[in-house]
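Entry for the shared binder. Reason: the reviewer on the internal report wants the predicted structure included alongside the sequence.
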Amino acid sequence: MQLPESETISIIVPLLLGKEFINPLLESIEVQTLQPQDVIFIISESDEASDSIQLIYERDSLNTIYKLVKPSNPGKARNIGAELSNSNLLAFLDIRTIPDRNWLKNSYKQLIDADLSFIGGMRNCAADTPYKNLLKTTTHGNIPSQSLAGSLVRAKDFNSEAKFKPNMRAGEDWEWINRFTQNYSSKWSESVDLTYHGLPSNIFVTLSKWYTYSIENSKANVFVVQKFLYFLLFIASLISLYSWNYLSTGGEWSSSPYFVPHLNKVVWFFLFLFYFIYRAIVRPIRLEVSKHYLFPFNWFAVGWIGVLIDLVKAPGRVVGFIRYARQVNGFKK
């Protein structure tokens, strides 16, 4: 497939670490059935930067452009890439999201056929170790997920709208998507043409990543419903059901006929049990994970990974809802 002479596409890739994915990514771009005009890498300074530049330089079958910058968040790097581009269409990728050969053609066709400003990417998640399979089951499952990586946007609309927030380490993609799609015609791709290879390799890296993302996401109005639910749980844990016995017995405690022994422990135990079953079994099945994989043992590990992730996300979610509530209240005033 050939683009009309009036149209060109630049692929923009922020790069900090992950040099081992450079060749697979460039190989996947080389075989695209619709070729971009150029591939623009915005490389943050790091111990890997010189190796990354060498790998990109060696790939002479593509028109690759790179710019070395001070360590930059992904949103800031994409903004820089957009400024370097002369194309009228911008495609966003990240180093760990590898497209299928028809990705660019399918995205472009949907954008043009529906006369849209934005086509969002749809990707599957890859797992190549036992731990990553457990983490995939806990988070993504086997259902394709929406992603900024793999998306295609008209440059004139991107450049006329506020760009990515440059100071956010995470969540800037959804903050931008939510803001952009309120003003411009958009939809998510009807084809799943990308595979994400970036799952953390162990539980310690996982928890560090989700904690950082949660703190960064608290700075933007994203995942508001989730933040609200965390806030309610936080308030409930502060109040605690232990107060039921005090209120219902008028302070008489065990001398009252309304006293329920161990009420706090019993109620919280069953609430946790229901939550754990949902995290370990119900949610993975809803994400189309096979029961044969979950049973007889994996469901238990899946549940505890989910619990730990939710715990480390809690501070950012609670803070995020408080910030959101204060912002909304400020607007009302």
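Summary line for the report: Residues 4 and 34 are 11 Å apart (CA to CA).
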